[in-house]
Amino acid sequence: MNTAQQNKAIVKQLILEALVDNDVTTVKQLVAADAVTHRAGFASLYRATGDAIPQDGNFMDWVRDGWDVLHAALGDQRVTVVDIVADDRQVMAHFHYNVLHQGTFTQMPATNKRIEWDEIGIFKFNDQGKIQEMWYMIDELRVAQELGHRLDQTVTPTAD
After folding, report:
1. Beta strands in 31-142 (DSSP E)
2. 37 vs 153 pLDDT, higher one
3. Span 3-147: which CATH code?
């Protein structure tokens, strides 16, 4: 297996198994202790709702400070890989999530309904074959609407 294939397998193991199962031991095996998350997947939604979950910084700190909250609120996670590509030390992946909103998340109490979103992750690897940097982008507007958030801003079209 070449480096690109190995790195794709590591990303799949992180997203499809370790995070879904809340397996911090495996996360620590796959991700460097000083790994940086440049953007958490729900960063804009967290900011808009005043949620205290970290939006960027050390990934392992985020796992410690944010993952338990997120995992408890969004349970029974079903994740599929839509597409994944790699080039040596970088992997880009498209995942589809289907989760149960079973606890308060972004200030919204549990609805006990399933919500879905698509997510893009970018992962960079270090010389030791561990994930060193990450970026996550999620269809946050879709999630916000499924949770019951409303956009209260009225937009007035401008004349061209």
Report:
1. 31-39, 57-58, 74-87, 90-101, 114-125, 131-138
2. 37
3. 3.10.450.50
Contacts of 2 (CB under 8 A, 6+ apart): none
Is 90 exceeded by the pLDDT of residue 154? no
Return the DSSP state at 103. S
pTM of the model: 0.87
- The mean per-residue pLDDT over the stretch 95-113 comes to 95
Domain boundaries, the chain: 3-147
Q: Is the pLDDT of residue 47 over 90?
A: no
Burial environment of residue 1 by CB neighbours within 10 A (0 to 12, 13 to 18, 19 or more)? exposed
Residue 67 near residue 56 (C-beta atoms within 8 A): no
The mean of the pLDDT values for the chain is 89
Is residue 83 within 8 A of residue 57, CB to CB? The reply is no
Where residue 155 falls (left for φ over 0; alpha for ψ -120 to 50; beta otherwise) is: beta
Cα(25)–Cα(53) distance, integer angstroms: 21
User: 134: how many CB neighbours lie within 10 A of its CB?
Assistant: 23
For residue 29, count other CB atoms closer than 10 A to its CB: 13
CB-CB contact of 137 with 38 (8 Å): no
